[in-house]
Amino acid sequence: MPPPITPLEQSKDDQDDLVFLEEHPTAPAVPGARNVWRVMIIDDDEDVHSTTTFALGNLDMQQRPLEFVHAYSAGQARELLKHEAEIAVILLDVVMEQDDAGLHLVRYIRETLNLADVRIILRTGQPGYAPEIDAIRDFDINDYKTKSELTRIKLFTTVTAAIRSYEQIRKINDSRRGLNQIVHASTQLMSLHGVQNFASGVLAQIADLLGQDGNGVLCVQECPEDGCHKLMVMATIGSYRHLDNATLCDQDHKPVYDAMELTLGQRRNIYGPDFITLYFAGKASRDFVAYLDVGRAPTEIDERLLEVFCSNVAVGLDNVELVTHLHNAAFYDQLSKLPNRTRLVEILDATLAGPARDEATLSLVDLDHFAETNDALGHQFGDMLLVAVAGRLQTQLGDQLTVARIGGDIFCVLGDSSQVNPANILALFAHPFSIDGQDVQLSATLGLVRLGEHEGSGADALKDADIALKRAKSQQRAGHFYFSRSMGVEIRERVRMMHALRTAFGQNQLFVVYQPQIDLATRRPVGAEALLRWQTPDGKFISPDRFIPIAEYSGLIIDLGEWVMRTACRELVDLRKAGHTNFMMSINVSQVQFRHPHFLEMLRKALEDTGAPPEFVELEITESMAMEEPDMLIKMLGQIKQTGVSIAIDDFGTGFSSLSYLQRLQIDRLKIDRAFVTEITGSARGSSIAEMVIQLGRNLGLAVIAEGVEDERQAQILQALGCPLAQGFLFARPMTATALNGWLSNDALEGAA
To answer: Angle at CA 260, nearest 5°, toward 255 and 263?
Structure first.
């Protein structure tokens, strides 16, 4: 192990990969004299010791060279520190014997050895082991750097600053009052939250250090935008409180402004006979400056105290301002300055846990048709309108309420039910908002939750309010709806089903079955309808009537529908390879899927990728779907027909089709709904509707197929009425692709015979 002490004359460069610019050598220390700055290097990597001594070997600070003390473990450092005196700076590796060995050593230095003067600089080669902010604060760590960022210049700068800090502390150590005050001031400041509180605390502590009344202002320098160099006021004290939240420029408050500008320009403290200005170096071109009136000029020890204080506070100001910005970004809406969704949930949790719960109501306030106003008048106008709404909600409902903005045009009001109720809130929208010289009339829809009736967290309460809001919007605009437990059960079941469906799709629990379609005259199969099925891992089947609407609501139907289409097309190709060449594959298409802007592209790609012949592919759409926006549908069907795919209208007869539009639709087949097939033998009305559909198809030149045929009598009547095709349990139940192939080869031929 190398010796623990390295005099300057013994240090040398044995690192081939490090090249530093030469500097003028410093005269060696006088033998036997303690006129050196002692730097202890604590690191388990010998290379770190040699490169550090090489990098700092020629450093001369105020006519004093450096002397290095080496420790290669935390344990060795503990023993050395018991008898090594006047250590000015410790360069300490965070991770040595254990991940936190460095921090434990810091605790030992500060608490057991009571070494308060020595400056500690933490270094680490593993950034993941960064110390907590509490550790940096509690153990007075001077700096923290990763080894990769400690270039020679940065190491030089860091150690220089640390030595200066050490020297100043040592020089003022005789001033018990000053030292105690600095420690006390730093502790007090670190306990303050928020940049304004911190800045105010800085001014108060400066006045206390000087033993004078506090009258002053602290500003941050902002980059000029209009040529006028501005100083933003962060905090004031005493006779300067009238400047709170003000902006200083050279036209106003000229003496204060000029003194601050001089300090910023010279980047140093200035001590006048009746005022002082203190400079706090910030990051990203944001420097801080304080101005205070003084009744007497500061003494030399006062100035030294303030220099130390400023060096400690500068980093704190920067960090607290950054934390404040991050806090505001995380918890407050940047436009309205109101609490955002995250902060609101915290407030809700606190309300639910407190005595105000029983009388509290939460209301979502959704601005009606705001998007149209935003699009028509511009986003800048829309932003001003949102700010105006926020202001009215804050000022006219009561001081004890919480107003938040949780979405683009959705606000939230939380408070006592006597104030948070539909009448009070909706009344705020009775009068127009004056924005940029224009009067804008708005209305709002409310979703409300009585917290006394709510069971769950703040996030759950917000979800319940959203459920109530959706119900209110589905009924009428400018209305309201209170949440009830039955609504929650319904919605939560839908959400549970939606998540389960996504999981099922990802885990291949969904599959396609095929129900054969039969020629009634020959009883031979002519095609099949592809049907989607869901079987859970425990063997239970979920009805399509339950999960298809959920898939449509969630948008999952787009991916599901494309998958079904490709699966059915591949099965058609396989059947043709097996010899079933004159076989039609029918595929159901959801309304949501059909209206997707890329549906046509999906269809073409599915046909191209699978090689399925389009003339043997049929898409089934519902009658209600066909009659909604028929002009758009006519255009879309025309494009689909160009691919060679045919079109059928499913469940025909259940809607209210316009025959004039039906003639214009480029469809190929009508499908008689199973309800009318059942009526053939089970209703006094008999076959009237089925007969009408068959006749209509014949007149329009469309093929007709009946679904849901379950007994032979139904099949015979349909055949007698002229219906050529049918499907149903009488002929075959829906079956898997493998079963269909076998059925077509065997059972179907036997049935036809």
So the answer is: 130
